[in-house]
Amino acid sequence: MKIAYITDQLYLHGGAERVLTNKVNYLANLEDMTIFIITNEQKKNKFCYDIDSKVKHLDINLIYKRDRSYFSILNIVKAPIHFYKLKSLLNKIKPDVIITLSSQYDYYFLPFIVNKTLIIKEFHSSRHYYQQDRANCSKLKGFVYKLNDFVERKYTYNVLLTDDEKKYFKSNNTIVIPNFLIDIPKSFSSLTNKKAISAGRIAPVKGFENLIIAWKIVFEKNKEWIIEVYGNGEKKYVEKLNNLIISLGLDNNFFIKEATHQIEQKMQEASFYVMSSLTECFPMVLLESMSNGLPIISFNCPNGPKNIVSHNNDGLLIEDGNVEKLALAILNMIENEEMRKNFSKNGTLNVKRYNKQTIMKKWLHLFGYKNLIL
């Protein structure tokens, strides 16, 4: 069986990139499986995560302006080239299953350029704000949303991460398959270091401004604890956050650091994880944190954290966007070591439901893999 995954790139650290890496590494070692990854703007960069040498990587070398709409003139003129290159490549390798993570032009034309092939669209972000915008958008943008509906009906399946996301889709071909943990670590955080951690793409949607402001409230009552945030983002935006940190006098307590391959080690050096995102779908970083023994503090943002974190069992879910309550929850976690230990124990047990065998069995069933062992 030949399976082709399509995405824009695999050199930037992120949840979708980590999930795709885990999947292809698993599939590449199954009997009678040939796995391809097709990118369009890898730019000869190394993969951000280790990918099995049996996985075949192909890049069509087509770079879009990420700061512009895909419907802008600068981007739309590249659509015919994208169409031709991708169609030619797929005709050459003839995959049995095609899965796209992309939201670029291939998302729109993929169902129309292949025949007798299982075509799947994977969604890795929540449509909560998408739906809000759709309710109040212009006629032109409304047309784009209707176009999305039409295209999504043409896929064999649209695979979502949570049941909550189903209500945002107009098609009846949606299936829910959550992400999985590759392994449960053999060691865990001691929960004694006076350090918290957060991680992710350094972008406005991650709400790090709110986390910085919340930490200022924490700092006024406890100056011993620090927080480290690991991730990459646009230079100007990172500078903006660092300027906010300095202006609040937190430059010795709040640190934004480059994304790291040693994130598991960094998690085990911390005593809890904080998420301040405006929206999430199924944040892998929460699974990874809990598997390393970290209690979680997170805004109860749409729609992901509540599907992973159990309030007052393995973490604390905070009223969405309430910075003061976020700060109070952090202080509560800092001051209550026994609570940290209980949350840690419960979390390491709860994440076992997302083991790779259980989740990948769902994917193999969807693919119609003949050697599926139940």
TrEMBL record:
Keywords: Transferase. Residues 186-348 form the Glycosyl transferase family domain. It comes from the Bacteria. This is Glycosyltransferase family 4 protein. It holds the Pfam family Glycos_transf_1. GO terms for molecular function: glycosyltransferase activity.
